[in-house]
Amino acid sequence: MPKAIRVHQTGGPEVLTFEDVELPALKKGEAHIRHTAIGLNFIDVYHRTGLYPQQTPFTLGSEGAGEVVAVGEGVTDVKPGDRVAYAGGPLGSYATERVIPADRLVKIPPSVADETAAAAMLKGMTAQYLIRRTFRVGPEHVILWHAAAGGVGQIASQWAAHLGATVIGTAGGPEKVALAKTRGCAHVIDYRSEDFVERVREITGGKGVDAVYDSVGKDTFPASLDCLRPRGIWVSFGQSSGPVEPFSIGLLAQKGSLFATRATLNHYTATRAELLETAEDLFGVIASGAVRIDIGARFPLADAAEAHRALEGRDTTGSTVLIP
Known about the structure:
alpha/beta, Quinone Oxidoreductase, Chain A, domain 1, Rossmann fold, 2 domains, six-stranded parallel β-sheet, 9 helices, Quinone oxidoreductase
């Protein structure tokens, strides 16, 4: 019988339970998949704690890879036996098997392993839309990436450097600083011992950066705005330290006619065409070697609570996968 990590009440990692589940019957447009690897992401913590509310009970998880077991009526893009991956869509990846809308699945190229796909889909497609569409990064740009040693940070820093941009990263502690320096960052600031605003100003000769990419939230705002050049853009796409407090829009004018956006992957992969284009771009840079996907840790699916403790304790680097 399939098993899954279920949340019956929101709270800490201890609320995660590993239990038998019964899969619903396949409907038109759906696919039944058997997971081989599952991606761990900070958004899973937001769902578990209730920051992003869900109706309980529910199965966690937004990202996975595996094999198609069966398809419902009308499904033509994938077939039984196909290796597929996904990110976003309905929750439910923390499971040995699941049913999912087939139009959310993409085929995994032969050159990409299942674990790599599961580790890269959400983080990698997030990096893609952030640096290719939210703000199109090129050789003329200098950007600041918070949490550069994290999963999204490592992928995005390599990708942006491949595009010719100068990447300044922040990381916590000597080990993570050293890691970020090997993943595309021209400069890395240890936020635990250095003032990142002062260092950014030093590095840029007082000009500031073109864009700040911020998944940290509370701890890096509003200081991130002080790192920007006039008319620069602050891109918020997460809040690992807590949500940003409401602020007056006038602050953007005071600090240089700045732009600000709160971006999410679902809005950038809303159509199947956008999803396929985003995934194709990601798989292309992985296959070319321009972007290396680091799997920093693997946990059995049954030990998802331990994986969450490691993630929240900032004890992880790169991507973490759960193995069914």
